[in-house]
Amino acid sequence: MSATRSRIITITTILLAIAGLAGAVTAVLHATRGGGTDTADSRPDRDAQRGDLAQEVADYTSRFGPDHGYRQPGRGDRTAIAQGVGLLVDGHRAQAERLLSERDFTVRTVLDRVSGRRYAEVADRTDDAVTPRGWGRVYIDLEHTPRFSIQVPHPVFDEGTEQLGVRVLRDSPGGILVMAGAHRKAGVGNSADVAHRRDTVFYAICAELVRRGMPGVQLHGFAASTAPGYDAVASTGAGSAGRSDARRLARALGTHGFHVCSAWVRTCPVEGSTNMEGRAADAADVPFLHVELAPEVRLNGTAAERAAGALSEITRRWATAPVAS
User: Fold this and answer.
1) How many H helices and E strands in the chain?
2) Whole-number pLDDT of residue 45
3) What is the pTM of this model?
4) ∠ at Cα 147 (322, 112), nearest 5°?
5) How many Å apart are CA 270 and CA 285, to the nearest integer?
């Protein structure tokens, strides 16, 4: 009798140990799916706020205008916000939230109804204030390991680039959309022109992603009179690390029916050689693509879809490539 009881106890103990081990393994796998132990991936979907990412961005940028809505960030603000985004990318959401909150930034999970994906939104609490700081917004794909950035430095000013950025983010896994938080002319002088300054939150975030070896594509728009006869101008900015990707992009744009000026072949207007994010990428030998698009490409729905399709051919390659160390 006692031997039987002993066997039962032994078997029960073994089964409990196996169940506990299985639970632990499941928890570890769940936690590391997004790259860390306190990521948004460990939170159930019911905590995400459902919405249309394109509409979220449209609502956000609808308030942008020249001559208002931008305040120069201090070095401490730039550093902390960039570090907070880096923590999110690395999967440490709780730490990121604490650090970003100290700079009046919030983190929430958005479930995009169109793509079905969850994105971490990093947003400035002052966006809805009477005098917003205009320090920008970031969307990070939570369903896949972050691999690349889509940069929109001049939303509204380069009309349509913000929505093109959303299209590419939706089309490619592992994307991070980095968007400036004010009109290009909003600040004193060129202080809000984040493509040509290093003392901005936008630059600090992009530099943080470059430090992780992530390639980036930056979207711009040119006036029809700037490059007559061309639909797009493709370049690698100040560097050449992205030259093979730039060639692929030019071919993809051509396949989609666009006439492209390739800056590595001939002299093109708006080549982006003075672009600061491009210079940061060049210093780290990380691929960077500077893409300028004509108004009819950015503002025509069908053309914009085709342009996004061409861009996504490159970002999808980045999504499957190992990130440079």
Assistant:
1) 10, 10
2) 53
3) 0.86
4) 145
5) 22
